């Protein structure tokens, strides 16, 4: 377990210096984020033994500088590469390293790039699918039907499967009545999966997406 600095006044003092470094030091922000991650983990005691506070902070910094997806995938990649991640700390802390964080920063940036590549691997096929959906739906479906099916398709491709759009949400987004939405549901019911009744929530079927995207 990492012990951190003592006493508490020293922790507060060094955390303050770390924040000053993060805000004012003249270096690219990604370098400062990675260096400050090491500094925080070195300064702060792991009372729970696993350093989750430090990982939460770096996720927030990455989210602010890049986006939420980068922060989430970085956390995912760390989880999948714990040995490499912890070894970077061990090597950086070696007294023979003389406080040089270059190697540590390089490893953290490598992990960040792996995560961003993962985003692209996931995003590119979905963007291609979106283009095909837009072309097909706009050419072959009436306006209300197109907008309803397109919205459900986007929710399926990019949304959270645990928090799908309800019919109330769709009414508000499209600005159409429930009667019109219900008519569309009746017409294309074979391509819809009802996953909840109150509030009513539908999901577009894989069959429909595969049929349109091919």
Strand order of the largest sheet: 1-2
Structural class: mainly alpha
What's the overall geometry?
elongated
Radius of gyration: 24 Å
CATH fold description of the largest domain? Fic-like fold
The level of helicity is: over 70%
Pfam family, one: Fic
Domain Fido: 1-110
InterPro entries: Fido (IPR003812), Fido-like_dom_sf (IPR036597), Fido_containing (IPR040198)
Binding site for ATP: 48-55, 85-86, 97
How is the secondary structure organized here?
Elements: H1 8-24, H2 29-43, H3 52-65, H4 68-80, H5 82-93, H6 102-140, H7 143-158, H8 167-174, H9 178-187, E1 192-196, E2 201-204, H10 206-213
Antiparallel strand pairs: 1-2
Helix pairs in contact: 1-2, 2-3, 2-6, 3-4, 4-6, 5-6, 6-7
Describe the structure.
This protein is mostly helical and 214 residues long. It has two domains: 8-121, Fido-like domain (Fic-like fold), CATH 1.10.3290; 141-213, Arc Repressor Mutant, subunit A (Orthogonal Bundle). Helices cover 71% and strands 4% of the residues. The protein has helices at residues 8-24, 29-43, 52-65, 68-80, 82-93, 102-140, 143-158, 167-174, 178-187, 206-213; strands spanning 192-196, 201-204. It is elongated, with a radius of gyration of 24 Å. The protein starts with 7 loop residues before the first helix and ends with a helix.
Question: What are the key terms here?
Answer:
single chain, 214 residues, mainly alpha, Fic-like fold, Arc Repressor Mutant, subunit A, two-stranded antiparallel sheet, 4% strand, ATP binding
């Amino acid at each position: 377990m990492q012990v951190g600095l003592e006493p508490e006044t020293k922790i507060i003092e060094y955390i303050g210096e770390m924040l000053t470094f993060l805000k004012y030091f003249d270096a690219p922000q990604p370098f400062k984020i990675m260096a400050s991650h090491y500094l925080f983990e070195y300064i702060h005691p792991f009372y729970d033994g696993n350093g989750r506070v430090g990982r939460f902070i770096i996720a927030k910094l990455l989210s602010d500088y890049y986006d939420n997806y980068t922060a989430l995938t970085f956390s995912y990649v760390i989880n999948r590469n714990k040995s490499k991640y912890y070894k970077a700390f061990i090597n950086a802390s070696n007294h023979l390293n003389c406080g040089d964080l270059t190697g540590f920063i390089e490893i953290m940036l490598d992990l960040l790039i792996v995560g961003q590549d993962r985003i692209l691997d996931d995003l590119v096929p979905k963007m291609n699918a979106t283009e095909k959906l837009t072309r097909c739906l706009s050419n072959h479906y009436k306006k209300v039907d197109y907008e309803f099916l397109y919205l459900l398709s986007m929710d399926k491709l990019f949304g959270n499967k645990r928090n799908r759009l309800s019919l109330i949400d769709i009414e508000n987004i499209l600005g159409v009545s429930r009667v019109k939405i219900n008519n569309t549901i009746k017409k294309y019911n074979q391509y819809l999966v009802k996953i909840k009744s109150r509030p009513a929530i539908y999901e577009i079927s894989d069959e429909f997406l595969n049929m349109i995207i091919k």
